[in-house]
Amino acid sequence: MNTAYFTHTRSADIVLGIETSCDETAVGVVCGDKKILANVVYSQHAEHKKYQGVVPEIAARCHLQKCATVVQNALRMSNVHLCDITAVAAATGPGLIGGLLVGMQMAKSIAWSRNIPFVPINHLEAHALTARLTDNIPFPFLSLLVSGGHTQILQVNGVGDYRILGETLDDAVGEAFDKTAKILGLGYPGGPAIETRARQGQLGKIPLPIPMRGRKDCHLSLSGLKTRVRQLAQQQTTLKTTLTPTYVNNMCTAFQHSVAMSLQDRMVRAFAIFKHNTRLQNPSLQNPPFVIAGGVASNLYIRDILARCAEKHHFRFCVAPPSLCTDNGAMIAWAGIENIQTHDKMPLTTGLDTKARPRWRLEDLAHG
Ligand code: KG4
Ligand code: ZN
Predict the structure, then answer these.
(1) Does residue 144 surpass a pLDDT of 50?
(2) In 3D, which of 252, 189, 171 has the Cα closest to residue 53?
(3) Pocket perturbation via mutation, ligand 1, pick of 25, 44, 100, 147 by most ligand atoms within 8 A of CB
(4) Ligand 1 — pocket residues by CB below 6 A?
(5) pTM score, two decimals?
(6) Distance between CA atoms of 80 and 103, rounded to whole angstroms?
(7) Which of 21, 35, 104, 113 is the most exposed place for a label (fewest CB within 10 A)?
(8) Ligand 1 atom nearest to CA at 127
(9) Ligand 1 atom with minimal separation from the 95 CA
(10) Residue 127's pLDDT is what?
């Protein structure tokens, strides 16, 4: 175990962040004053496309092949030398073990060779904190984290301090987009494909349910909606042998709308629960921030509906630009900075023996 003390000023931090938890090999360089010097992403979509989903073994091999080049490119773009970097952060979980090991090993090697701290980062925490990189968002805030692997509604009290108010009981929202796209023959990743086709369809042509509407808690469930799409698509193919482009467009419009309506309904519950929880600690909290994060947050239709809903319930709606919503290295570097600054003047444990944690709940962060 290796322990380092941070004695430099906050804005002088220059952190390299490495993200390899799924199918993006990504490296970012970010300063303590929130300047993003580089954010390079190599996306493995082409490698996984023919399997219509991420194949863990292929992902790990691809990270291994690309990681060093992506680090070099990020350093070149940022115009900083390795000796200017003050710490190296890497996603150490949750995610696919093979990919996590590649990114962590690269980060540890750089940290060890430069004698600077290695900062292990929870991938979900990095998504949750990204909006603080691009906006001035104080704690506590409410966050809807919607990615390919996770869907959670969080009360973010501080760095490392999360309370899960609601989460999916089955599929993550991004996963539901990906599986629905597969049913409709739209390939991988499904989210952007469905959003594009939804713009060309008509709302009201295909009725779909709005999952979990009216439930008192704020959990989500999307597998039933996806199954309904499958049943309707099967009925259609029996009638017509193939799905017509118009049918696919209308189905995408209906699916995206149902997801957005379900998220809206769940968030209205979460707004009330968040206000209740935080009123006890801070009775004067006005217009608290509501942040959406993760890959699905780049969907403009969902953003628009949630933005209007937030305004109606007196929350300040915040979302990072799309390139910072999907997996990227800048969010890992920024989470590194947030963790370093939280441990300011305290020893930050920089364990080169840190293990990857394929499963790692945000609520467990408080307990190490
Ligand atoms: O956060 P992310 O890049 O990776 C994970 O941590 O999972 O999220 C990827 C997910 C994929 O499921 C992808 O289909 C979805 O985000 N996604 C979208 C859009 N762009 C990406 N879903 C809906 N609409 C989009 N525009
Ligand atoms: Zn992610």
Answers:
(1) yes
(2) 189
(3) 147
(4) 22, 147-149, 174-175, 177-178, 189-192, 195, 294-296, 298-299, 326-327
(5) 0.93
(6) 20
(7) 113
(8) 1
(9) 6
(10) 96
Residue 24 bridge partners (DSSP): 43
Task: List pLDDT tens digits, range 243-269.
Answer: 999 999 999 999 999 999 999 999 999
Residue with tokens 């939804």: 198
CA Rg, the chain, in Å? 21
The reported pLDDT for the residue numbered 4 is: 44
Alpha-carbon gap, residue 245 to 268, rounded angstroms: 35
Taking the centre of ligand 2 as the mean of its atom positions, its distance from the CA of residue 349, in whole angstroms, is: 25
Q: What are 264-298's pLDDT values in tens digits?
A: 999 999 999 999 999 877 777 789 999 999 999 99
Q: Is the pLDDT of residue 33 over 90?
A: yes
How far apart are alpha carbons 118 and 332 in whole angstroms?
A: 12
Write down the pLDDT at residue 328: 98
Q: What pLDDT is attached to residue 346? A: 42
Q: Which two tokens stand for residue 206?
A: 């295909």
